[in-house]
User: What shape does this take?
Amino acid sequence: MSTFQAPKGTYDLTPPRSAKFLAVRAAISGPLKNSGYGYIETPGFEDVALFARGVGESTDIVSKEMYAFETKGGDKLALRPEGTASVLRAALEANLHKAGNLPVKLWYSGSYYRYERPQAGRYRHFSQVGAEAIGTEDPALDAELIILADQAYRSLGLTRFRILLNSLGDKECRPVYREALQTFLRDLDLDEETRRRIEINPLRVLDDKRADVQKQLGGAPMLRDYLCDACKAYHEEVRNLLTAAGVVYEDDEKLVRGLDYYTRTTFEFVHDGLGSQSAVGGGGRYDGLSEMIGGPALPSVGWALGVDRTVLALEAEGVELDIPATTSVYAVPLGEEARRVLFGLVTELRRAGVATDFAFGGRGLKGAMKSANRSGARFTIVAGERDLAEGTVQLKDMESGEQQAVALDELVAVVRARTA
Ligand code: ATP
Ligand code: MG
Assistant: This one.
């Protein structure tokens, strides 16, 4: 161990577990790439005001969890706590919405930062894969995103996840409900901070995890009873499309989520093996966000799935991912001359597309064979002076134990044929 450790609330991804993270990212992005979503990458930090406006001043994310700082040049920046605001900012900046091709469908993958109290499944640095479909209001688009996330989780072999679904209404019906809810909440026995929340973002009080608060919320007016006809019809259509696709979901009228900008469809993916950090992903429609950050009206929908918690979910379910050995061939030279010849062959094999590794450091046969085993390689190539004198190497099949001499100038072709 060095003098230093990973900062509090962070951890390193190291082999072999890091392979699971790559597999999870690939599993989530696969269905997106296959459905017309293009890859977008934005900076790890943005103008702090983008998040203040785009995520919402009253959210925990902005008010408590953001890594905000001032640069030497006096710019006020923040490490990105989430992806949607940045992606929309970038799409607007590049005028992607003006190319006459709506919706603009984008996917991303990266690191996010929140100053939270570290615990299992909750870190200060974590990673998400996300998707946004910008500029179109169509229940099929909301359904598409939920179906693709479901497909991603299933392709990983997860079964103990559930999809929670709700509608938050729109700018017609939500304000009416908001007021009714505020009137109800103001009469309850609540602490100062929660009373303040009633005035800024009352829907989030419904989300309060404390039992004494939940008990008082029993008779709260429900948004479902306030949805306008257009929102009701839209939500019905999303539900019908999901059902037709065979995607099982649960209606959860208390689901409001942490972000201010959600409208209509809102959903969360929870996993039952994760204890209190049970949300593996979430998202929804955010029809007002573009205007909130100075853009035109662009109704949009998206989600972000947490890679860290998805890996934890796999481990909780005991799912072993089928991660193929990265090395197909392992070369073991015996002696100086063999080292030069085999290193040359290793380079040739690699250039021919065969995943190959080499016993570095001039180790003895026993130690080198141990490394060959550990690498998971299907074949080893062993050569000493006598083999080279005959112009051959020994090619060993690690599964069957079979060994054959192969001429040096035929090796690449033989190995390629047998690893194809
Ligand atoms: P939570 O309710 O658990 O705080 P959230 O609503 O803040 O989650 P989102 O902003 O919707 O989460 O982010 C989407 C996903 O990103 C979450 O479902 C989760 O998997 C992951 N995520 C969010 N915050 C963290 C964190 N601090 N550490 C690890 N993963 C996180
Ligand atoms: Mg959170």
